[in-house]
Design goal:
It is a single chain. By secondary structure, the protein is α+β, with helices and mostly antiparallel strands. The protein has one domain: 2-Layer Sandwich (Alpha-Beta Plaits). The protein is built from two helices and six strands; from the N terminus they run H-E-E-E-E-H-E-E. A hairpin with a 4-residue loop joins strand 3 and strand 4. It is elongated and about 55 Å long.
Length: 116
């Protein structure tokens, strides 16, 4: 399960750095930092894949200064761990409600456990 292992590794690095409320569970309640499912997956041939593992830093709706302060306290921690990552502000839907968020894009290379 190489994709799950890569996702878990991102989770563990963030938690070790002190990022608050890191989870792999997309139904967690905000505020949380969600390590999402890999996307933008590209094969590198028999060697494996490159992909993006999104990290969503999600605050409580509707926002406000306390939510902004929490988001901005977690963002530099995540960017420090995920060197070379990019971040964009936006929203993340939780229970049909848009929550203020950042999406951090972390690129990884995953080696195939099934070499041919």
């Amino acid at each position: 399960m190489p994709f799950q292992a890569a996702r878990q590794a991102v989770h563990d690095k963030l938690a070790a750095r002190g990022v608050e409320s890191v989870t792999l569970d997309p139904v967690a309640g905000p505020p949380f930092v969600l390590v999402g499912l890999p996307d933008s997956i590209t094969s590198t041939g028999r060697a494996g894949w490159t992909c993006t593992i999104p990290v969503h830093i999600v605050g409580t709706p509707p926002g406000g200064k306390d939510t902004a302060a929490w988001l901005l306290s977690q963002l530099p921690l995540a960017l420090d761990v995920l060197r070379g990552a990019t971040a964009e502000p936006g929203t993340y839907e939780v229970n049909k409600q848009d929550c203020p968020a950042y999406r951090v894009e972390h690129s990884v290379t995953i080696t195939s456990p099934y070499p041919c």
